[in-house]
TrEMBL record:
Residues 9-173 form the Glycosyltransferase 2-like domain. Its main location: membrane. Coiled coil: none annotated. The keyword Transferase applies. This is Glycosyltransferase family 2 protein. Keywords: Glycosyltransferase, Membrane, Transferase, Transmembrane, Transmembrane helix. Belongs to the glycosyltransferase 2 family. It is a multi-pass membrane protein. It comes from Micromonospora cathayae. It is found in: Membrane. It comes from the Bacteria. PANTHER family: PROPHAGE BACTOPRENOL GLUCOSYL TRANSFERASE HOMOLOG, UNDECAPRENYL-PHOSPHATE 4-DEOXY-4-FORMAMIDO-L-ARABINOSE TRANSFERASE-RELATED. The lineage of its organism: Bacteria, Bacillati, Actinomycetota, Actinomycetes, Micromonosporales. The chain crosses the membrane at residues 234-258, 270-292. Residues 312-346 are annotated as: Disordered.
């Protein structure tokens, strides 16, 4: 690799992926070596607590193109993904998960399409999700329908975080004020020329999924609240519906009073109180989600903090960017030197 950077950077966020590392290297390295182009693989260790760090250190001994970016704590998949993308140095940047459900061989087709048609974004679109369970397929389809409804049809259906970005897109992402953007929504929103490459989604090669139901729900909530004010409008309409229902109940109560049928009355009162209470709590919850995002933005804390970057071994340190800056523009902490890095990766 030269000081101007490689042609291709492959970003692989990982958390507790010790068991899949040998399989990933065996699949990914031959694909990239056959390109006969300078490349780097940016493995982002998202605060793993198993042997992932030691496994990456062992791989680096025989794989010079492997670059290890270690975060100080577990910051989440999206934050680790953003950290790797913003620090990647290639003219093209591909992001892929470590579990091999997205085939590394597809990277060749993505790069070929981008160069042939001058595209800035190439999405990996899942043509078949038969390896996923019924519930996973149903929830994923619902998520993409919702995102396309809120953000627009430029969000490709069944396209996750397996994508290729040009250097122009990465630089545009650097300029965004968001500290932890949801890339699967922000990238289509930028409006760069894009294309698609379809592939068959495989089963996870080893280990356990890092996206259980709770994290999928969290991603959906983060996607909606970071990209649309529709929930607030929904709360407004829900409040108006509550007012209409209460007005009808008032009319019913007045008619019943004139008819002399107001002896008991407690069921209607009970239902009205429950309905209004539920509407108020729901509206407060929706408002709280947005207030929480405002509070987080005002705090100015970074979405991730880099503890070590093996690129520093060669004295080729990148400027601190994105979530690694404090409110005054200075770096968060110091990146350790080669000796400290070697200790940290053991």
């Amino acid at each position: 690799m030269t000081r101007t950077g490689p042609l291709l950077s492959v970003v692989v966020p990982m958390y507790n992926e010790e068991s899949v590392l040998p399989l990933l290297a065996a699949r990914l390295r031959p694909v990239l070596d056959d390109l006969a182009e300078p490349y780097e693989v940016v493995a982002v260790d998202d605060g793993s607590v198993d042997g992932t760090a030691a496994g990456l250190a062992a791989l680096r001994a025989s794989w010079p193109q492997l670059r290890v970016l270690r975060l100080r704590r577990n910051s989440g998949h999206q934050a680790a993904l953003v950290a790797g993308v913003l620090r990647a140095r290639g003219r093209y940047v591909v992001s892929i998960d470590a579990d091999l459900q997205d085939p590394p061989e597809t990277i060749v087709a993505m790069l070929r399409l981008a160069r042939a048609e001058g595209l800035d974004v190439v999405y990996g679109v899942r043509a078949d999700r038969s390896t996923d369970g019924t519930f996973k397929r149903w929830t994923a389809a619902g998520y993409y329908r919702l995102m396309r409804r809120l953000v627009g049809k430029q969000v490709p259906a069944q396209a996750g975080d397996f994508r290729l970005l040009s250097r122009a897109v990465v630089e545009a992402l650097r300029e965004l004020p968001e500290r932890a953007p949801v890339l699967r929504l922000v990238v289509p929103w930028l409006g760069f020329p894009s294309g698609e490459v379809t592939y068959q989604r495989a089963e996870r090669a080893a280990g356990r999924t890092k996206y259980p139901l709770s994290r999928m729900a969290g991603l959906a909530a983060e996607s909606v609240t970071s990209f649309s004010a529709a929930p607030l409008r929904f709360a407004t309409w829900l409040g108006l519906a509550g007012v209409v229902v209460c007005a009808l109940l008032v009319v019913v109560a007045v008619v019943a009073w004139f008819a002399g049928a107001t002896v008991t009355g407690w069921p209607s009162l009970y239902m009205a109180i429950l309905f209004l209470g539920a509407v108020q709590l729901l509206c407060l919850g929706l408002l709280g989600e947005y207030v929480a995002r405002i509070y987080t933005a005002v705090q100015g804390r970074p979405a991730y903090v880099v503890a070590a970057d093996s690129a520093d071994d060669a004295g080729d340190r990148d400027p601190v960017v994105g979530g690694e800056r404090t409110g005054d523009g200075g770096p968060v902490g110091q990146v350790p030197g080669p000796a400290a890095l070697a200790d940290s990766l053991r």
